[in-house]
Every structure is written in C-alpha cells, then in structure tokens.
Amino acid sequence: QVQLVESGGGLVQAGGSLRLSCAASGRTFSRYTMGWFRQAPGKEREFVSAISWGGVSTYYGDSVKGRFTISRDNAKNTVYLQMSSLKPEDTAVYYCAAAGRPMVTMTPGEATQYNYWGQGTQVTVSS
Length: 127
Known about the structure:
The chain is mostly beta strands. The chain is built from no helices and 11 strands.
C-alpha cells in the first residue's frame, strides 16, 4: 500500500513558476513509476508527466513539454514537478500517481496504469 500526499499548489500569475511535491509512504518507493496528472473543471483527467524508478527516463504530455520538469528523490520518497512559464490553461487540480511496475512495461500516459493516487493539489494561474 502506498499513500501519496501532494503539496505546493497555489495561485500564480501567468509566466510564473511553482514546484509541486508528492510525498509517498512505504519502503519501496524506488520501485514505483511515478506520474503527474491534472484535471480542470469540466474536462477529463490529462497526463502531465512520468518518471522511471531511478529517474533516468522521463515522459511528458505535449502541452507541458519544455515548461515542466519531473524529478524524484528516492531517499526522501518524494517526486517533484517543477512548473515554469505557467499559462492560465495550466489551471487544474494536479494529482500524483504511483504504478508498481517499471515504466518500460506500461503506457505511462494512461491513468488506468497507476495503482495509487493522491488527493490532489489546486494550481490556479491568473492571466
């Protein structure tokens, strides 16, 4: 069982930056592919980014490529999402997710591939 707790959301002006964190419980964090998804009001959940067990491989949704960076610190059981050049369309609830399998064995952009989810953190970007 893995519990995920996101933090770092808030209100920011367009062009600004935020860093989200996701703290995970459990001793096997390094064996989970970690992902970030987001959901805006009235829209479907959207894939943002994923990172492999050791952090070597990363994967991004087209809408955030070049602006967001995912990273992880396995010693701290934490995954991060550094968001830069934020746009109003980035406004959403951001969710952290964990999949108990290597990223090469899954489709990291599909939410159904993940076993555990956090409660989400709100990010609001004002124009």
